[in-house]
């Protein structure tokens, strides 16, 4: 495996990614690309799943080291499920985000993983939280993350409007992911999107060849 | 968790004690020249087909430029319905799969259920993650259980991916080319075996660290067919003559027998309770 690991700061498989989450009127859309890379030159998986369900109406997107992110999410899933049994009710989205934050903050020296948490709960409706590498937790209306996000800050700032419809928001998310995947070498594959509302959860997968094309493609 | 891990119950949460140990070990070797462990320099591959999973591997184990073992077994037994191919450090893959197999056997006896592939994957992931990549095991786990046919890859840092086809080891890129070209969902048994054989063959031909024979393991609901070897190397040489000497080749000139006198000094009796 020496020929694959070069000078990338993340040891082993990295998710080098584009992830995003956005609130619309009545719900939230969370999505990511599907590429896992090693050392910035070898795609170790074209179809890795980075959008993980941690509870019925709460999903997380992972960025950074794949091993660290998977381990943290596993622990978080267990904590949330235990918490929900103790409280005898579904957990709040902030609870999921806090569990991730706690793990990332307390082990910040050894871990290299960041997360987006999005979901719907009865008390506060649709919410999006960001847990960064060092363990900072903040709440936002729309947020992007991963190495590919640098290429779409302009697009997101210009095109995001609060209280969009579900279709508008899905189109916005698909476009943003497509633009990032088009410019970032470590993002690619298919676009995984999940729409979470009070009624339920809907998965939308857009294969690479069905992604929207922009000029010069 | 008490059902499967008998020897070690890991404390809950993350345990990063080994990072301190690793840092100390790195400091011990000046110039950063840590001794290199023996690697298997391998091609392993796996494919999910209509009725199960096919795993394949070459059989060469190298120690730098010398072939240390021409017939090494890289497809390890985990459970009656789960087998695992290992690439990376030979000792690590051997011991990790042995440990996993023991834990799953205990689990089966305690719970009365057959282990599921996803359970094996979770145990491996937990263990490899705890060791932060210091265990150099790149594993392909394949098996058939009540939920279907599964193929997983586990990396040395503890990352897991579920895939329909896969190759690992130093010859992985050569094998992956064949797999990408020939894989289709729901293959029949013979085309699937042929695809894996061709993939390992590509690895053997194009990678110096892989060679000799090809082993194939087919796992289906009906059972396991471990074909070792599936294909023998075409470059096998035959021994030119017999190197064993007949008794009597060397003539005996004189013979002297001296009996040793032994006397009983002490006698102890230990009672064994077999009730």
TrEMBL record, chain A:
One of its GO terms (biological process) is proteolysis involved in protein catabolic process. Its EC number is 3.4.25.1. Pfam families: Proteasome (PF00227). PROSITE patterns: PROTEASOME_BETA_2. InterPro entries: Ntn_hydrolases_N, Pept_T1A_subB, Proteasome_sua/b, Proteasome_suB-type. GO terms for cellular component: cytoplasm; nucleus; proteasome core complex, beta-subunit complex. The active site is at 17 (nucleophile). It catalyses: Cleavage of peptide bonds with very broad specificity. Keywords: Cytoplasm, Hydrolase, Protease, Proteasome, Threonine protease. CDD domains: proteasome_beta_type_6. GO terms for molecular function: threonine-type endopeptidase activity. The 26S proteasome consists of a 20S proteasome core and two 19S regulatory subunits. The 20S proteasome core is composed of 28 subunits that are arranged in four stacked rings, resulting in a barrel-shaped structure. The two end rings are each formed by seven alpha subunits, and the two central rings are each formed by seven beta subunits. The catalytic chamber with the active sites is on the inside of the barrel. The proteasome is a multicatalytic proteinase complex which is characterized by its ability to cleave peptides with Arg, Phe, Tyr, Leu, and Glu adjacent to the leaving group at neutral or slightly basic pH. The proteasome has an ATP-dependent proteolytic activity. This subunit is involved in antigen processing to generate class I binding peptides. This is proteasome endopeptidase complex. The gene is psmb12.
From TrEMBL, chain B:
It holds the Pfam family Pr_beta_C. Its main location: cytoplasm. PROSITE patterns: PROTEASOME_BETA_1, PROTEASOME_BETA_2. It catalyses: Cleavage of peptide bonds with very broad specificity. The active site is at residue 42. The keyword Hydrolase applies. The keyword Acyltransferase does not apply. It is found in: Cytoplasm; Nucleus. One of its GO terms (molecular function) is threonine-type endopeptidase activity. Residues 239-269 form the Proteasome beta subunit C-terminal domain. Keywords: Cytoplasm, Hydrolase, Nucleus, Protease, Proteasome, Threonine protease. One of its GO terms (cellular component) is proteasome core complex. Component of the proteasome complex. The proteasome is a multicatalytic proteinase complex which is characterized by its ability to cleave peptides with Arg, Phe, Tyr, Leu, and Glu adjacent to the leaving group at neutral or slightly basic pH. The proteasome has an ATP-dependent proteolytic activity. This subunit is involved in antigen processing to generate class I binding peptides. This is Proteasome subunit beta. It comes from Oreochromis niloticus (Nile tilapia). The gene is psmb13a.
């Amino acid at each position: 495996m020496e020929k694959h690991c070069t000078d990338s700061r993340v040891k082993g498989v990295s998710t080098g990614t584009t992830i995003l989450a956005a609130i619309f009127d009545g719900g939230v859309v969370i999505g990511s690309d599907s590429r896992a890379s090693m050392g910035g030159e070898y795609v170790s998986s074209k179809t890795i799943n980075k959008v993980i369900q941690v509870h019925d109406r709460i999903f997380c997107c992972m960025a950074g080291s794949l091993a660290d992110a998977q381990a943290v999410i596993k622990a978080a899933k267990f904590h949330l499920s235990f918490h929900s049994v103790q409280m005898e009710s579904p957990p709040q989205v902030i609870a999921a985000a806090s569990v991730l934050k706690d793990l990332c903050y307390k082990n910040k020296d050894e871990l290299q993983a960041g997360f987006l948490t999005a979901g719907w709960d009865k008390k506060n409706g649709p919410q999006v939280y960001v847990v960064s590498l060092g363990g900072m937790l903040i709440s936002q209306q729309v947020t992007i993350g991963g190495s590919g996000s640098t290429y779409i800050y302009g697009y997101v700032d210009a095109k995001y409007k609060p209280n969009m419809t579900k279709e508008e928001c899905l189109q916005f998310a698909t476009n943003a992911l497509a633009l990032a995947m088009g410019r970032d070498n470590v993002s690619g594959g298919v676009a995984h999107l999940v729409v979470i509302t009070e009624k339920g959860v809907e998965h939308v997968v857009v294969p690479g060849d069905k992604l929207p094309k922009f000029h010069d493609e | 968790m008490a059902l499967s891990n008998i020897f070690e119950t890991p404390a809950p949460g993350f345990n990063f004690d080994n990072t301190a140990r690793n840092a100390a070990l790195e400091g011990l070797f000046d110039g950063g020249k840590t001794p290199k462990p023996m690697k298997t320099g391998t091609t392993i591959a796996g494919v999910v087909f209509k009725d199960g999973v096919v795993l394949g591997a070459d059989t060469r184990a190298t120690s730098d430029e010398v072939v240390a073992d021409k017939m090494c077994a890289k497809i390890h037994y985990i459970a009656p319905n789960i087998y695992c191919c290992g690439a990376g450090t030979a000792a690590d893959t051997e011991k990790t799969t042995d440990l996993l197999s023991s834990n799953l056997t205990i689990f089966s006896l305690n719970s009365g259920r057959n282990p599921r592939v996803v359970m094996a994957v979770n145990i491996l992931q937990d263990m490899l993650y705890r060791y932060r990549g210091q265990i150099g095991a790149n594993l392909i786990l394949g098996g058939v259980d009540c939920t279907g046919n599964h193929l997983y890859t586990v990396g040395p840092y503890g990352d897991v991916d579920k895939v329909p086809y896969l190759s690992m080891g130093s010859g992985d890129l050569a094998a992956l080319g064949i797999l990408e070209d020939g894989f289709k969902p729901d293959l029949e048994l013979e085309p699937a075996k042929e695809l894996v054989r061709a993939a390992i063959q590509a690895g053997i031909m194009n990678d110096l660290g892989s060679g000799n024979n090809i082993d194939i393991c087919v796992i289906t609901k009906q059972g396991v067919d471990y074909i070792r070897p599936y294909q023998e190397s075409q470059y096998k040489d035959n021994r030119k003559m017999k190197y064993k000497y007949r008794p009597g080749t060397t003539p005996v000139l004189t013979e002297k027998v001296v009996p040793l006198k032994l006397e009983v000094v002490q006698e102890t009796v230990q009672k064994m309770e077999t009730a």
